[in-house]
């Protein structure tokens, strides 16, 4: 979908049409129906960068299968499940809001953007089997993960995901499985939410429009300069609030805003690639997202997984991601000069320091990006021993620009998640970083609203208050006493999303 509708001097300008802007725009318009909102997107179609179906893995991250969310703690071999629980609860908020969008006709056909796909963790070797055993013990005790299954029996794993076992030499293996996992096409839900937004009174969506500059206005709010890429005409629009949801393009725009809070931030891009298989007889044999352990220096977001993907109604298999060295910040509209041009006096020292303290990572990225197809296949065969080179092709994934800030000098860059940067009067917010990402986008945008427009979350009861949109927004579903309410609401959302 593309568009050229313009609203002059709206209340809110959204930069970018990815999952973050899509959720924010839809949430804001529901919470305050008379709000005027204008969205600008540089590409011709909506959501073609990181949120595009093929540019990310489409895992509805809920902490079920990602082993990096549950590190070992203590000498007794127990694992810490705090992070997994947190992500699970945040993904529930996304599902509740999208279910509300379906139930009110904002979006149709949930099958276009969310599908049930079991989430499996799979390990081999005794040490990893011990880890998974301990992880299962910790997780299955919580009601969120009550339905998790565990096995060390190869025959059971074969019944869950035959490709993992066929042709595998005899070794200790273990797996957990939860049927309630999902595959999400974040690009499709972004497009649907933005299409809805664009049809609302007082709202406009303009594609092929690049935001080129932002200036704080003396009367409050922001003057935004936009270039129409079809006509090369440059125009100005103003708004009381601007959200820079430009993905990899956020850092350069944040720097242009010149707000004090932007100083010291830098960006470190990590590209990605997948192996993709479309061969029907192989695709039909696998119905799961299978995550394993991180390898060597691999950053946590590059832990490989063997995934069922459902994009545009078609099922495929995807394996990866393989990380790659790049200096571009955007896959579609990026340039090789993005990284050098982001270097400023206020972030140069931090970036050099971070680069020097992360040389193994830089070496890893270069090695990953330049490896042969044979070496990629070797890694795939640790998951799918009988994989055949002829059945797989290499495709580009999206680019993650990891945000780096001053204090990160020693800590390293790869564990740094998303960061919402706002100015003192809360008239601008920019989202930097990309992990854990799209799955928890609703939760991130709710935090942004709580910071910049808290009054919208405190409206008198109506059919557009936050509790109507997201019933458990203010609730803690963690304690055992909340289990019944969680199961009830989760089932209702899953039903609306066609997941049951
Ligand atoms: C390889 C990989 C795998 C991933 N896997 C998962 C996963 O399995 N699950 C998950 O939850 N998350 C995953 N993620 C993360 C997820 O994709 C991102 O967190 C999410 O898509 C970011 O959304 P966004 O809206 O911030 O950015 P984007 O989707 O990148 O959207 C930004 C938009 O802004 C536009 N733009 C940029 N500059 C300008 C400008 N100057 N003017 C106007 N428009 C502009 C861009 O064209 C783009 O459309 C993955 C990411 C990658 C790279």
Helix content: 25-40%
Low-confidence stretches: none
- Mean pLDDT figure: 91
Give the ligands present: flavin-adenine dinucleotide
**Separation of the first and last Cα atoms:** 29 Å
- Say what the CATH topology of the domain at 1-113 and 185-245 and 436-500 is: FAD/NAD(P)-binding domain
- Biggest beta sheet summary: 9 strands, mixed
CATH architecture of the domain at 1-113 and 185-245 and 436-500: 3-Layer(bba) Sandwich
What is the tally of beta strands?
22
Give Rg in angstroms: 22 Å
Structure summarized in a few sentences:
This protein is an alpha+beta fold.
What does the secondary structure layout of this molecule look like, with pairings?
Blueprint: E1 12-15, H1 19-31, E2 37-40, E3 72-73, E4 78-79, H2 82-103, E5 114-116, E6 119-124, H3 126-140, E7 149-151, H4 154-160, E8 173-178, E9 182-184, H5 186-199, E10 203-206, E11 209-216, E12 222-228, E13 234-239, E14 241-244, H6 250-257, E15 266-277, H7 280-283, E16 289-291, E17 305-311, E18 314-325, H8 338-342, H9 345-357, H10 359-370, H11 373-381, E19 393-396, E20 400-404, H12 408-411, E21 419-422, E22 428-432, H13 441-452, H14 466-469, H15 483-496
Parallel strand pairs: 1-2, 1-14, 2-10, 6-16, 14-22
Antiparallel strand pairs: 3-4, 5-9, 6-8, 7-8, 11-12, 12-13, 15-18, 15-19, 15-20, 16-17, 17-18, 21-22
Helix pairs in contact: 1-5, 1-13, 2-15
Bound molecules: flavin-adenine dinucleotide.
């Amino acid at each position: 979908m593309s568009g050229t509708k313009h609203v002059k001097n709206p209340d809110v300008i959204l930069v970018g049409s990815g999952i973050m802007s899509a959720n924010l725009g839809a949430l804001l318009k529901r919470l305050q129906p008379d709000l005027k909102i204008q969205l600008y997107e540089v590409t011709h179609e909506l959501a073609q960068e990181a949120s595009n179906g093929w540019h990310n893995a489409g895992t509805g991250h809920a902490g079920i299968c990602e082993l990096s969310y549950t590190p070992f703690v203590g000498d007794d071999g127990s694992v810490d499940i705090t992070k997994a629980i947190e992500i699970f609860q945040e993904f529930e908020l996304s599902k509740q809001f999208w279910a509300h969008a379906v139930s009110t006709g904002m979006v149709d056909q949930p099958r276009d953007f969310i599908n049930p796909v079991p989430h499996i963790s799979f390990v081999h070797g005794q040490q990893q089997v011990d880890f998974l055993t301990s992880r299962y013990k910790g997780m299955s005790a919580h009601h969120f993960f009550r339905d998790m299954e565990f096995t060390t029996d190869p025959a059971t794993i074969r019944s869950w995901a035959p490709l993992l076992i066929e042709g595998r030499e005899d070794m200790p293996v273990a797996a957990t499985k939860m049927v309630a996992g999902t595959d999400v096409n974040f690009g499709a839900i972004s497009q649907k939410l933005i299409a809805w937004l664009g049809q609302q009174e007082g709202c406009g969506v303009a594609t092929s429009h690049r935001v080129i500059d932002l200036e704080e206005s003396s009367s409050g709010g922001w003057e935004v300069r936009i270039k129409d890429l079809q006509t090369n005409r440059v125009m100005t629009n103003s708004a009381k609030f601007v959200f820079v949801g430009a993905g990899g393009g956020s850092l350069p725009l944040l720097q242009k805003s010149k707000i004090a809070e932007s100083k010291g931030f830098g960006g470190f891009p990590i590209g990605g690639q997948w192996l993709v298989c479309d061969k029907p007889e192989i695709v039909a044999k696998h119905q799961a997202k299978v995550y394993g352990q991180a390898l060597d220096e691999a950053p946590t977001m590059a832990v490989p997984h063997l995934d069922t993907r459902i994009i545009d109604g078609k099922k495929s298999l995807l394996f990866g991601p393989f990380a790659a060295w790049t200096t571009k910040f955007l896959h579609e509209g990026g340039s090789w000069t993005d990284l050098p041009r982001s270097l400023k006096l206020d972030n140069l020292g931090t970036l050099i320091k971070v680069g020097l303290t992360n040389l193994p990572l830089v070496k890893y990225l270069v090695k990953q990006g330049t490896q042969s197809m044979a070496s990629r296949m070797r890694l795939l065969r640790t998951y799918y021993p009988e994989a055949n080179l002829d059945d797989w092709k290499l495709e580009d994934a999206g680019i993650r620009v990891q945000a780096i800030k001053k204090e990160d000098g020693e800590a390293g860059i790869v564990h740094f998640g998303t960061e919402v940067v706002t100015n003192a009067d809360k008239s601008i917010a920019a989202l930097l970083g990309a992990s854990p990402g799209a799955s928890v986008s609703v939760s991130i945008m709710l935090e942004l609203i709580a910071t910049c427009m808290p009054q919208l979350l405190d409206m008198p009861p109506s059919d557009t208050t936050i509790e109507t949109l997201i019933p458990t927004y203010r609730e803690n579903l963690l304690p055992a006493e909340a289990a019944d309410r969680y199961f009830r609401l989760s089932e209702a959302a899953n039903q609306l999303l066609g997941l049951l």
